[in-house]
Amino acid sequence: QVQLVESGGGLVQAGGSLRLSCAASARTFSSYAMNWFRQAPGKQREFVAAITWSGSSTNYTDSVKGRFTISIDNAKNTVYLQMNSLKPEDTAVYYCAAGPRFKIADRWGQGTQVTVSS
To answer: Which of 35, 45, 71, 72 could form a Cys-Cys staple with 39, CB 3.0–4.6 A?
Structure first.
């Protein structure tokens, strides 16, 4: 059973940056995709970004394009989400998740809180 552990959340001012990390306890299947989702208070969970384990393909939701970058370090079984130019509307709990393809997940981490102050 693969476990996913997120870290790197915190409080930052608008315009600032944070880098989230997601460490997998074991190498997932090579066909799996690694996703980041987020859930703001009172809102449904939404897709943020995804990457294949090879790192050859990525996908982003429109609201974060040009600001967020997803990457993967296969040697460390770790996925990163670099978040720049943060906005108050980026405030949410961010979840790392593995699944068979982009935007689909069947294994989830516990989440890490990101708060962006105005």
So the answer is: 45
Q: What is the 3-state secondary structure (H, E, C) of the chain?
A: CCCEEEECCEEEECCCCEEEEEEECCCCCCCCEEEEEEECCCCCCEEEEEEECCCCCEEECHHHCCCEEEEEEHHHCEEEEEECCCCHHHCEEEEEEEECECCECCEECCCEEEEEEC
Sign of CA dihedral 94, 81, 21, 12: negative
